[in-house]
Amino acid sequence: MNSTVVDINELTIGYSKKNPLVEIPRLEISSGEIIAITGPSGVGKTTLIRTISGLVRPLKGKVSLFGKPFGVRPKRGSLGYIPQRLGLVRHASVLHNVKLGARAGNSNPYSIFPNKEIRDLCLDSIRRMGLSEKIYEPIRRLSGGQQRRVAIARTMAQSPKIILADEFLSELDEKTLEMVKTEVVEFVRKESSTLIVVEHDVSRAKSIADRMLVIDDGRVNPFISQITALEVKK
Ligand SMILES: Nc1ncnc2c1ncn2[C@@H]1O[C@H](COP(=O)(O)OP(=O)(O)OP(=O)(O)O)[C@@H](O)[C@H]1O
Ligand SMILES: [Mg+2]
Q1: Which atom of ligand 1 is nearest to the CA of 215?
Q2: Integer Cα distance of 223 and 128 in angstroms
Q3: Probe ligand 1: pick from 16, 37, 45, max atoms within 8 Å of CB?
Q4: Ligand 1 pocket, 5 CB below 6 A?
Q5: Do 214 and 106 fall within a single domain?
Q6: What's the CA gap between 183 and 63, in Å, rounded?
Q7: Cα dihedral angle (11, 17, 21, 26), rounded to 10 degrees?
Q8: What is the DSSP secondary-structure string of 34-50?
């Protein structure tokens, strides 16, 4: 049975009451769904996923994650966030960064997780992202697209119940993009996880999502942007 993962009611997001960014009357996202958020630059896409993640307080209305209201932390490791600026440890190796994800996903931080088990899990995520030859390479010596793939491997090793990914398909060539999309979709389906991606490229968004959330540029109502949900027919 699919359960509600994100539940939004009369939500207004932004950083100050004087300048609200987007209004969302009602939105429910179920487990197993893949959602893409599109819209022009600066409209509030990142702000929306940061609000869902619990990082930005709503200006008005309700947002709950796994049935818990804003401010209540979800279970350790259940939320995976791939930020637009990736947040990797730049001097550390690919493997080290991915291990940080695996540790975050371990529900008991004090358990002595067998080292080999963690290592195999991490190596598998790295392999899926096509980076097996870069395991010991420090992040700062990788290209932009390779760094993005490390961030994805790190999140997969965490096995989260929801992944919020901000422009995670940027900087990838056609072939790598297809490979990353296939691996991530397979991961989400297999784990019955939920994926919310911010993707400014509409055709890329359509190619991955079950549903698209299109944020308009605020021209209809010049003060605040609205969101439209569209089913994607495959
Ligand atoms: N921490 C912050 N404090 C105040 N305002 C912010 C903050 N972060 C972003 N903003 C503003 O909020 C608006 C929306 O930003 P956001 O990052 O959500 O846009 P976006 O849709 O993700 O854009 P892009 O496609 O360029 O990444 C912008 O006008 C930005 O200047
Ligand atoms: Mg953004």
Answers
A1: 21
A2: 44
A3: 45
A4: no
A5: no
A6: 29
A7: 10
A8: EEEEE--TTSSHHHHHH
With a 6 Å cutoff on the Cβ, whether 20 touches ligand 1 is no
- 100 and 64 assigned to the same domain: no
**Domains held by the chain: number:** 2
Written as six digits, the tokens of 8 are: 């939004």
What b/e readout covers 169-190, taking b as 16+ CB neighbours within 10 angstroms?
beebeeebbebbbebbeebbee
Q: Where is the domain boundary, 160, 180, 200?
A: 160
CA dihedral 174, 180, 182, 183 (to 10 degrees): 160
CB 196 within 8 A of CB 52: yes
pTM of the model: 0.91
Residues 155, 168 share a domain: no
Q: How many residues does the chain have?
A: 234
pLDDT tens digits, 163-196: 999 999 988 899 999 999 999 999 999 999 999 9
Name the residue among 80, 180, 97, 103 with its Cα closest to residue 141.
97
DSSP 76-144: TT-EEEE-SS----TTSBHHHHHHHHHHHT-S-TTS---HHHHHHHHHHHHHHTT-GGGTTSBGGGS-H
Looking at the domain assignment, is residue 80 inside a domain?
no
What would the mean pLDDT of 125-130 be, rounded to a whole number? 96
